[in-house]
Design goal:
By secondary structure, the chain is α+β, with helices and mostly antiparallel strands. Helices cover 44% and strands 19% of the residues. The chain contains 15 helices and eleven strands. The protein has a six-stranded mixed β-sheet with strand order 1-2-6-3-5-4, with helices on both faces. The protein is globular, with a radius of gyration of 22 Å.
Length: 413
């Protein structure tokens, strides 16, 4: 059972003691994703994530940070999303203090040394170039831009080359101080833990002070995206396509209906898209339907890598499956399979202390209320076949569909 503790400075600490594991994950989530940017600082959230690993007070450079975790056989990483950023260390439970020490030093005492900034510019520029050269990544970002338009929700997290080349120590410090505050962060500790010891350690080490978050983001503006296609002509061996529509915000009453809909369409190797587009027609290697759900908007889409000469056929096949699920009520057998698949994947994922920490922390950070596994399962179980058809018709009507493609796409115009 999880426990929530609010420290004196407003920092929320979520603990989850799990039997049957010798590991512990310490994860800190901060409301500091790319939605908090404007055009002048587009990409600073992601660059800042890199800089936190470059040294602070107790661990003075990237080598010392890495060695502290490597020397106890731990794992560590970070990520920047649209609405929040996360930093985690996973270790054997006896090394919990080391994990907390490294993370707290990084996030509270980061130096943002100018010499390190200059070195990291090159790293991130190469990451930028890698994404440009990887159509599977880039087509997803093109689709987000098509779907959400020219606003932070429609921008990729990597940012612009201009920002990467020009951002300064002062820019990082200002941005960090505006968002990396106790009231805007959640620390989650899951695994083989002593809860009292965890709270005491977090209280001692994560001393953010009493400053409050001073930066926010504007709500999603749906009228900023009107185009239906985004075609990127590039010489590739496959045409990479994404076809989909705007979806449902995470807190919406139909959130779980959309999850079941997505699973039936293309969530696994026995799904409709996989069987129709790959197995029956042989049009692609990979094909998958998925959702992205944010606090005030979302997306549902099917992506595939297809034969460059048959991209139109593949898009037509995807659209045909969208039309079919709108026209016909799914069978109880197919509905049950989709629901059980979702619940089974949740059970498997949450055996990992990192996944458990992320689940608990995300809902606390974004919604101020932890969502339990039991609540999620009840939400999935409540979905009916009629719900699936109703939401499919609302989301996947032909006039709502948008298509992004990268490859020799002249024939798609």
């Amino acid at each position: 059972m999880h426990k929530k503790t609010v420290l004196e400075n407003g920092l929320r600490v979520i603990t989850q003691k799990s039997a049957g594991t010798k590991a512990v994950t310490v994860l800190i989530l901060c409301g500091a994703g790319s939605r908090y940017e404007d055009q002048s600082i587009r990409g600073i959230s992601h660059f800042l994530e890199h800089m936190f690993f470059k040294g602070a007070n107790r661990y003075k450079n990237a080598k010392e940070v890495s060695e502290a975790i490597d020397s106890v056989g731990g794992e560590f990483n970070a990520f920047t999303g649209k609405e929040y950023a996360g930093y985690f260390v996973k270790v054997a439970s006896e090394h919990f203090e080391t994990a907390a020490d490294v993370l707290s030093d990084m996030l509270v005492n980061a130096k943002f040394d100018s010499h390190e900034i200059e070195k990291e510019r090159g790293v991130i520029l190469e990451e930028f170039n890698m994404y440009q050269d990887t159509p599977m990544y880039q087509v997803g970002w093109d689709f987000e831009n098509l779907l959400f338009g020219e606003q932070p929700m429609g921008w990729d997290e990597i940012g612009t080359k201009e920002l990467i080349k020009s951002v300064t120590h002062e820019d990082f410090l200002k941005y960090k101080n505006s968002l990396y505050t106790a009231d805007n962060c959640v620390v989650c500790v899951a695994g083989n833990i002593d809860e009292k010891k965890v709270i005491k350690t977090i209280e001692e080490k994560f001393n953010f002070g009493n400053e409050k978050r001073s930066r926010g983001f504007e709500g999603f503006k749906p009228d900023l995206a009107k185009d239906l296609k985004k075609l990127h002509i590039k010489k590739t061996e496959q045409t990479h396509i994404v076809c989909g529509a705007r979806g449902i915000p995470e807190g919406h009453a139909d959130h779980y209906v959309e999850q079941v809909l997505s699973t039936i369409l293309g969530g696994n190797m026995s799904s409709r898209m996989f069987m129709a587009v790959r197995e029956e027609k042989g049009l692609c290697y990979y094909v998958k339907t998925e959702t992205d759900n944010y606090t005030d908007c979302g997306a549902i889409s099917t992506r595939a890598g297809v034969d460059v000469n048959r991209a139109v056929l593949a898009i037509d096949a995807i659209k045909a499956e969208y039309a079919r699920i709108c026209d016909e009520v799914v069978s109880e057998k197919e509905l049950s399979k989709g629901k059980e698949f979702i619940k089974g994947k949740i059970a498997l994922r949450l055996e990992d202390s990192e996944e458990m920490a992320h689940l608990l922390g995300k809902y606390e950070l974004l919604y101020g209320k932890i969502k339990t596994v039991e609540e999620i399962v009840r939400g999935v179980d409540a979905v009916t076949a009629e719900d699936v058809q109703r939401v499919a018709r609302e989301l996947l009507a032909p006039e709502n569909l948008r298509i992004a493609a990268i490859g020799p796409v002249e024939g798609l115009r």
